[in-house]
Every structure is written in C-alpha cells, then in structure tokens.
Amino acid sequence: MNRTILIAGKDFPAGKDMAASAVLHxxxxxxxxxAGEQVSDFGDGSFSVGWNRGSALSARTLLISASNSxxxxxxxxxxxxxxxxxxxxxxxxxxxxxxACNELVLGYQYLAAxxxxxxxxxxxxxxxxNPGKIVFVHKPGANEAEAVKNPNLRLENPVLSKxxxxxxxxxxxxxxxxxxxxxxxxxxxxxVLVECSPTSELSKNDSAFMAWLCDYMEELDSLKKPLSDKxxxxxxxxxxxxxxxFGFFRT
Length: 251
Prior knowledge:
disordered C terminus; alpha/beta; 45% helix; 10 helices; 8 strands
C-alpha cells in the first residue's frame, strides 16, 4: 500500500464500505469516527480516528494521526452526504443551530485549512513527487422546500433535509468551489470537486463510488497536461472519466 488516504465526513461505521474499497485499491485508510473515539486498527490497512468536528485543534490532531503513523498523507476525501445528515439534525434553535454550524460548516473548513498546511509542508520537505489531493464530495438530497414544490419527494424520501442540513449543504458546495479557486495555482495540492446525483446507481453504492474515485485520482497523476484552473473549480459527475483520458471505471 503506497498511498495514505483520509476519508472524512461519513464517519465510521457508516462509511465502512468506502474504507474497505479504498483498502482494495492499495490505500492505507484513515476514516473519521465520532468525537472522543481513539484510533482503532481494523487489521486490514484501515483505521478509524475520532474527530470533533467543531474543533480546529481536533482537525489538526486528526491529520497528525493520519500522517505520522505512516509517514505521509497523500489524499483526503471530504464528504457531505445530505441523506446521511438529514435525520441527525432537527429544526433551528440556539443549541441545534450552533451544533449544526460547528459540525456541518466549520468542521470542513477547519479540516481543509489543515490539509492545505500539511500538503504544503510535504512539498517543502520534498517527500512526494505528486501533489496531494483534496476531494470534496457533495451528495445532495431532497429538502423540505423541494418537497413543497414536488410532493412526490415525500414518498420517495423517508427523511427530508430540514433548514439546518439544507443550508449547510449549500455552504459546503460554495466553500468547496471557492477553496478550489484559492489553490488553483498551488503546486502542492490538486482540488477535485465531485457531485453525486441522487439518482445515480454509482452514487448510491459507496464501495463502487470509492473504487471509481481511487482510479480517478491515480489517473490525475499520470496526465501529460495538468488540469486547468477552470477544470479545478468545476464539478465533475461521479463516474466521469479523467480529463483527456479513457474510461477506466471498474465494475
């Protein structure tokens, strides 16, 4: 296993299929778990590590754990899965709004900032020839406003996103795009924006999705021509082929 990947946002055990798929694609895998959890070694090349989403210090500690144990961190996948979060956050109120803001908005921003610092340090030290990858995965779901416009959504989706999750989902997307824009010219990192359609079979299958994503990231390293700035800030559909390449999705 010559790459180390962090999967953050769909915590273990919910994200265990993603972790297992990344292991099969020759990654040492770190996946986030609930706040206060200790590092757990599953014996197959994957580990879970606790993440207090609302803490900037926890974001740093998380990356130290993922980097130091194996000497490097090569890839990070930040996932906002609206369907996963929808049942976890209720209606707005002082406590619930603060909790949602800390965990669903600030948490990703803290982690992205720490990842950029980590990849910059790796570049300065000359540890790896390929730039680090920061992948933002947006998996939107149906929300209450959409269900008012289209009542059939209530039948198709047992749990709809309430205001806190729906607004955090939009914030994640805006942050991902503008973070990617801010690092377009950086040599130490390549941002990748991935959009998962709710109707896509690939998007519904975490194992198959991660298999595609691992292949996609590897293909980026072999491109003869680097991604353009426009490509770096554009969302790609899950299952897409690499720019200038051929389809390589494994079934």
